[in-house]
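Entry 12.
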Amino acid sequence: MVQTISADRITLYQLEAEFGLRQIESASAFLEWQQELPALTPSEQQRLDRVRAAFANLTQRSVLENTVKLAVVAPLLDLAGLFLPPFYVSTEDEVELTAQEGELTIRGRMDVLVLKEQFWLLVIESKRAEFSLKVGIPQVLSYMLTTPDHDRPLYGLVTNGSNFVFFEASLASESSLCSLSGVCAGKSRRFGTGASGVETTRSSGRTVIYDEAPN
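Predicted 3D structure (tokens):
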């Protein structure tokens, strides 16, 4: 009998059990983040300060998920130029993911999907300001696994407006990797479903990898 579950209720345990992920440890990840990054321009810094001030004002009351998208996610997408060609932003797209055995189906709606032509570039899930980002991690992972193109990198983001967790996924059959980095918490993770697995790192150098479980 097929069990259908909402993506916002999926757990990492279910993704591991139904989609063949297991946890191991490694010592390497996110080396590119240790390189020198370009400094923000004064204009970019002013726009980010304005987003920060707007969110601080909103947090005097309860900040709902849609408010986070409006006040934080949209300005950041605009600052990154993702509303302009060759990119396209779509919202509330329905997705469905079924385990190979066909016993579990995950359904949900992606808050934001950024495309370049037909290729998925970025999947974003926003949460209420009061919510822990942990609740969004398996949700975004399940969305990222539904990408129609496993040959190109895919990025993801979970945010509650004040904290951000970024993903970078490569879901090729021989090397399925998804890196997750908790910036504010100083943590990062990787998850995946291929022979090389999904990896998770932390700023301390400890890395957790989710790899394809043996038969």
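Annotation: The chain has a mean pLDDT of 77. The chain is about 20% helix and 40% strand.
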